[in-house]
Amino acid sequence: MTIDVAFIYTSFFEIIKALPLTMIITVVPLIVGFFIGVGVALVRIYKVKPIYPLFDFYVSFLRGTPIILHVFVIYFGLPMLIDKLSSVFGWGIKTASIPILLFVLIGFSLAAGAYMSEIIRSGILSVDRGQLEAAYSVGMSTPQALVRVVLPQAIGVILPNLCNIFIGFLHTSSLAFTVSQMELLGKASVVASVNLKFLEAYIAAAFIYWGLTFLAERLTAFLEKRVTSYNRGGVV
After folding, report:
1. Residue 156 pLDDT
2. Distances from the Cα of 201 to the Cαs of 85, 144, 204, in angstroms?
3. pLDDT value for 235
4. 175 DSSP 8-state letter
């Protein structure tokens, strides 16, 4: 068996057409998950009652189960719930009209929130408690101290972990193909099946994933240097 190098080149440009959807499936849940993670992390740090145990369970359960299960539960369960509520309250909503992508994004976002909360919590706890006390001494409230003092320093600490979770979700986005979303790996599978050249198509897909991972790592290193310099009062 010989490898068709020309087809690797051709399939590369065919597969990369699925990049926009892949980035949506990767980036949108991470953005939503970041805000979920901040809220969950703060509740767990300050042990806010009565929601603290609920959030603790949320993090434990979603981190302890595969993301594909979250996608399937949302994909099959949420439409049933919406249809039931719609019939009871007369909303007139038909889940058949809701894009499948939305259910995928919800499932991924909930998972991202759980993972983000642990990363953010560790970042906040890594900041010296004296920084918070100093902020209080100049009249800042707790929210102001968190936003202006703690979070900027925590971001610098957690940037490598944020990069890792981006790379992880970039690779995990391939699970969306199980519910008919044509992301990179799904597109590669289709290209491979149509042309009966599986090895070449998957090699092309591998180069795309590797390129995106490489760019993410370089960007993170650049941002980490800038944030660290800023937090130390240096020139950025």
Report:
1. 83
2. 44, 51, 5
3. 46
4. G
CA-CA distance, 117 to 36, in Å (whole number)? 7
Q: What percentage of the chain reaches a pLDDT higher than 70? A: 97
The per-residue pLDDT of the chain, averaged, comes to 90
C-alpha distances (whole Å) from 184 to each of 20, 24, 98, 123, 124 are 9, 12, 23, 32, 35
Q: Could you give all domains of the chain from N- to C-terminal order, each with its CATH number? A: 5-231 (1.10.3720.10)
- Residues 6+ positions from 220 with CB-CB distance below 8 Å: 159, 160, 162, 163
Q: Which of 160, 165, 163 is nearest to 108 (CA)?
A: 165
Cα separation of 80 and 4, whole Å?
47
Q: What region does 235 belong to: left with phi over 0, alpha with psi -120 to 50, or beta?
A: beta
Structure tokens at 219: 């960007």
Q: Please give the average per-residue pLDDT across 112-134, as a whole number.
A: 90
Give the pair of three-digit tokens for residue 30.
């991470």
d(CA 211, CA 46): 40
* Whether the model pTM is above 0.85: yes
Nearest residue to 99 via CA among 28, 17, 184, 205: 28
What's the pLDDT at 236? 45
